[in-house]
Amino acid sequence: xxxxxxxxxxxxxxxxxxxxxxxxxxxxxxxxxxxxxxxxxxxxxxxxxxxxxxxxxxxxxxxxxxxxxxxxxxxxxxxxxxxxxxxxxxxxxxxxxxxxxxxxxxxxxxxxxxxxxxxxxxxxxxxxxxxxxxxxxxxxxxxxxxxxxxxxxxxxxxxxxxxxxxxxxxxxxxxxxxxxxxxxxxxxxxxxxxxxxxxxxxxxxxxxxxxxxxxxxxxxxxxxxxxxxxxxxxxxxxxxxxxxxxxxxxxxxxxxxxxxxxxxxxxxxxxxxxxxxxxxxxxxx
Length: 285
Hints:
Rhomboid-like fold, 2 domains, mainly alpha, two-stranded antiparallel sheet
C-alpha cells in the first residue's frame, strides 16, 4: 500500500509540475517556450546548452499535452512498479538529456524548435506495451477495450491531429514531432531488450540453488492413507510433473515475475516451486 501511495504522489507531482509550466507559458504568450525550447542554433551558437534539458517544460501543442497526461495517469503507475523511485527519476532525466543532445547534434545549424514531452510519452507507451502484451481488458463505459489496442488508438489519434495541426500553423510541427515519435519508440525497444538480457545474464551467472528442507519427525512417521487420497495425490503428482516439464511452462513472462519478486523481496521470498523453476530454466539455456 505504501508503494502505491508513493507512485500516486510522484504521478501527481509530475502532472502538477509540467502543467504549471504549460499554464504559465500560455498565459505569458509562450514566453517560456522562447526561453526554454530547444533551438540547436542557439544552444550551440549562443552557448545556451541548458536548453537540452529545459525543452519539456515549454508548451508544444494541445495534443502533445493530452498525450503526456494520458501516459502519466494511466501507464506511469504500471511503469514505475518495475523501478525504484530514484531509478525512475534518473531514467526520466536521462531520456530528456539524451533526446536533447541527439536533436542538437542532428539539427545543429537549424532553427527548428523541440518542445514538449512527446519523446517521454512514446517511450512509456512502447515499454508498457512490450511488458504487458497479455494484459486484460479495461472497462470504459459503456464498452470494454483491450488496453494495448486502446493505447495504439490514442497514438494514432495523436499522429493524425499533429498532421492536421501542422496544416494551420506557420511553424514546423512535423519534424520535431516525428523525431520525438521515432526517438521514444526506439529508446523503449532498446531499454526493454537491455533489461531482459541483463536479467537473463544474472540468472546464468548467479543460479539460485533450491533450499533443502530438513524433514521433521512427524514428516518421517508413516501414516495411513485411504485409497481415494492416494488416487488424488497421484493425480496431483502427475499434474505437477507435467507442468514442470511442459514447454509452455517455461515462459518469459513467468521468468520476469520471479525476477521481479527477487528484486523486490529478495531470494529468500521464493517458494520451492519458483526455485525449481529457475534451476530447470537455467538448464534449458
